[in-house]
Write a structure and sequence with these properties.
18 helices
Length: about 525
């Protein structure tokens, strides 16, 4: 409005919309314009398309508003002679400026002048952005804390800046009094549209969020560009800090190994943890072992990438993560920072998130397996959790998919079966009970083992068993008679029935073990 040729103009509508951004100036004399605009254009016209037709004028203005044009400049007298009241009302309703030239003006001179201004502003913006980026990169080389980046960014953008970390910790720049902080926390919790929110992604996961509050003015294109540069810088700094911390953790692996072997007292462990982080308060914990089956050898960097990713996920679920490696296994000692209640659901959710990510591009992993030991209330009992985690992981390779679980406490009968298998010939014990049925099925394909398992599971209900096996009752009666002849008519007596149920689970365990051994044998060959 302060440029040449605009000295004598009149704003007849949309006065409150004069703050709108102008990205380009466009001369238009056609009335069907919707497909010709990208938004933020200042339109110059003589009104040739509608002349004094009010309805066509309203349709033209509606298209401009819907396309988010910046404003409309009309040269009155040549073709259009007046502005209808309905047009002014529509423009005011949408805060859409209508500017009138009361005398002939050179549109070509206006477009040349404003386009030169816009191009020069754009060039200056690129220059300022490059200067900002260079200063930001220089700071990244010199600093270790994100606060300096936030202060530098806030000084540049001159708006209220808020940074959140792990969805809890908040940093306000410039600082605010407690009452104002609470107001902003409430706005963030309500996901208010009055804030511009930008996630800080690390290893594919949101680790922090940068929030800008544009109370004094609207964000422009330059603001959005420096926000993008700042978010990238924060991600680089946080990733670097995480990487350094992970390297320190690797250096402490010998101490961790002694911890897992039960060689440290509770006092020694507490002192060591206090030295690492004076604010750290653990409510017991659990050991989780991760077995990475690689289709190709990974580099150290790739391994660190995976550990950082897992650590980020597990910390979001309320655990302090200590990491060490043993042979090809990655061991996480997970100190619980929250109450014991719900620890299992939190960990289960975190492990599923890790399993659902495709790591092939970075690590060339064919599969991941997790074994979670018993939860312990005292930190010096982690060796007990480690021992059970190893057992849980070992059983992952043996059990069928439907029987698998991350958690040692879910394995129930399989823990007993595994113990029996270690100290005696489990096959002989199983065959002592089930040999007649197994041999009959092998000889006649009689499906007696399947029938026996379902009959026991249905508590001896013939109707329910027949329904689940999809057979008629007469067929089921015939099979049960065969089972009675082979195992004895007393096979449903409580003690014998309990033993048979146990032996069926053991038999399936042996079958799965045999299949795995055969598969590994062929693989080795």
């Amino acid at each position: 409005m302060k440029r040449k040729h605009f000295e004598t103009v009149e704003v007849v509508a949309g006065q409150s919309g004069l703050h709108r951004f102008v990205k380009w100036v466009h001369v238009v004399e056609v009335i069907q314009i919707r497909k010709l605009l990208n938004g933020h254009e200042l339109i110059l016209t003589t009104g040739l398309g509608w002349k004094d037709d009010k309805e066509i004028f309203l349709s033209f203005l509606t298209q401009l508003i819907e396309c988010n044009a910046a404003g409309l400049c009309i040269e009155l007298g040549t073709h259009a002679t007046y502005i209808p009241e309905e047009v002014i009302e529509l423009a005011n309703e949408h805060q859409f400026p209508i500017i009138i030239f009361h005398q002939e003006v050179p549109f070509v001179a206006i477009t040349q002048d404003i386009h030169s201004l816009l191009i020069n502003q754009h060039y200056q913006m690129i220059s300022d952005l490059e200067n900002y980026s260079q200063q930001l990169n220089k700071k990244l080389l010199e600093i270790e804390d994100y606060e300096e980046i936030l202060h530098f960014f806030q000084k540049y953008i001159d708006l209220q800046v808020i940074a959140t970390f792990n969805e809890k910790d908040m940093q306000f720049v410039p600082p605010l009094i407690e009452r104002e902080q609470q107001e902003y926390r409430a706005l963030i919790a309500s996901d208010s549209s009055n804030m511009s929110r930008h996630p800080v992604q690390i290893l594919g996961q949101q680790y922090a969020e940068l929030i800008v509050v544009p109370k004094q003015r609207e964000l422009n294109e330059f603001d959005l560009l420096i926000i993008d540069r700042t978010v990238t810088a924060l991600a680089q700094l946080l990733l670097r800090n995480l990487y350094v911390e992970e390297k320190k953790t690797v250096e402490e692996s010998a101490w961790m190994t002694d911890w897992l072997e039960g060689n440290h007292s509770e006092q020694a462990i507490r002192e060591h943890l206090t030295y690492m982080d004076p604010q750290l308060k653990l409510q017991g914990g659990v050991v989780c072992i991760c077995k990475m089956n690689s289709s190709a050898k990974s580099s150290n960097m790739d391994g660190t990438y995976f550990k950082l990713f897992c650590r980020n996920i597990l910390e979001q679920h309320g655990f302090h993560v200590f990491t060490t490696e043993w042979k090809h296994d990655l061991i996480f000692i997970l100190g619980n920072k929250r109450t014991k209640k719900g620890w299992r659901d939190r960990l289960n959710e975190g492990l599923k998130r890790i399993e659902n990510v495709d790591f092939n591009a970075k690590l060339k992993l064919s599969s991941l397996s997790f074994g979670v030991g018993k939860y312990v209330n005292r930190v010096n009992d982690m060796h007990l959790s480690y021992k059970t985690a190893k057992e849980a992981l070992r059983l992952q390779d043996i059990l069928s998919d439907k029987n698998k679980s991350y958690f040692y406490e879910d394995l129930h009968l399989y823990r007993i079966i595994s113990l029996v298998h270690k100290h005696s010939d489990l096959t002989d014990v199983v065959m002592e009970y089930l040999a007649p049925v197994i041999e009959y099925d092998q000889k006649y394909n009689g499906r007696l083992m399947e029938t026996l398992k379902m009959y026991l599971a249905c508590q001896g209900s013939k109707q329910e068993t027949a329904k689940k096996l999809f057979v008629v009752r007469q067929t089921l009666y015939h099979r049960i008679e065969k089972i009675e002849k082979l195992l004895g008519e007393d096979f449903m007596i409580s003690e014998k029935r309990l033993a048979l149920e146990f032996m069926i689970v053991a038999y399936e365990y042996l079958q799965t073990t045999e299949k795995n051994n055969t598969r590994y044998h062929i693989y080795d060959l």
